[in-house]
Design goal:
about 35% helix, binds calcium ion, 16 strands, alpha/beta
Length: about 500
Amino acid sequence: MNGYRTKCRILSLLVIFCNLLWEVSRLAAAERPNILFVFTDDHCTQALSAYGSKINRTPHMDRLAREGMLFRNCFVTNSICGPSRAVILTGKHSHLNGFVHNGNNFDGAQQTFPKLLRQAGYQTAIVGKWHLRSAPTGFDHYEVLIGQGPYYNPPMIRNGQRVQHTGYTTDVITDLALDWLKTERDNSRPFLLMYQHKAPHRNWQPGAKHLTKYDDVTIPEPATLFDDGSGRGRAAQEQEMTIARHLSPHDLKLAPQRGLTVEQREAWDRAYGPKNAAFREAKLEGQDLVRWKYQRYVKDYLRCVDAVDENLGRVLSYLDKSGLADNTVVVYSSDQGWFLGEHGWYDKRWMYEESLRTPLLVRWPAVVQPGSENRDLTSNLDFAQTFLEIAGVPPPADMQGDSLVPLLKGQTPDDWRTSVYYHYYEYPAVHMVRRHYGVRTDRYKLIHFYGLDAWELYDLKQDPDELRNVYADPAYADKVAALKEELTRLRQLYQVPDDREPQRQRRKKAA
Ligand code: CA
């Protein structure tokens, strides 16, 4: 009898112990932070007020900076949409992840950080823009735009099935993100949610709410709006991305917009009809015409950013109300920077500062000092390893970045990188920006347009707007030699194959 009792006691103790173990592991899992990755397309720091924008206000993004860390020097490795996304997913440069330019097909069988988080017990989801052609892999749930996707009434692919939505895409994507958080989330596991907007990508169609915002103001022009590239080199002069000559009537809203419902079209006609009539009446020419195009283009861009910021506010508010905010790392970034009229341009692609730099804001309660700022050289190559370290997952040896977690804790390692490598491949193609690679340090930038065998050197301290190529200046000869050596070292470190620029062929239609 005693033996039976003892066995019963041991059994019940075992059951209690197992329950305890399960509970401890569940709590440990729950304590790993959630990760909300808020990602936009073509949003530059010049249009984000936490970075000192002179042209707009972004209060909800600013809130992330105020409650977290702002990275001053976060650069992309290849300033174009799809490639940036592939670098972020894999933690590898374009030549290794295989997605070197838009139009490639992402190999979804390869290692990505969402897959590694999922294996480690995270619930993973992506909503919004994907833009990598192949179907998303590594996600418990996905609902993504098809290709670039439209600004209004987007069809989307939800876990393999096409779904038609009505409404403004920035709002729709936010509704989907909130729906997932409210109804699909598994409370027993931490989550990764990639909440990725199309906005403010070309052709900058604002939502109904913002169609006339900024109508009564004049947006300040950048100092380099009328730069002709003559201080830089042939590549900068031969491109096709000027506000003066390359914006289409569709971009400028002088042509009817496609894909709108009757109601949406009426709102557009009310907003743009009188403005367009006044423009035609004015018959502007020369610099006056460029100035008009600049205002039209930048205002539409800012209206798209406004919708993103307001929608981010909705998501942050939900995190607060649901109690998720305390244990959720919120990261805000964009796939690259952008020219908002600097050098007379729109678009990205170049290794010049405006397109090389991307915003990065990270809020991580109880870890990141609120209102802090980091000036180290950081990169979208670092994101994958950062997310893995946040989740306590060891990074694979073949990832090429460095985790930003020490920086987030205010402890930059002594041996942190002192240069970043860049490589752009999409030529010949829309905008005709030559292939180039280069190296940037905290002060200098050396660029090689290898199809032209043309070199450019900028002293960013003396010439922050990059208007004077000093490559041939004898005063910089030692600097050129040292930077070429560093470039060779980086190309070896990252296993970059020798690359020749393809011959110019038939031009593609706008991507
Ligand atoms: Ca982009």
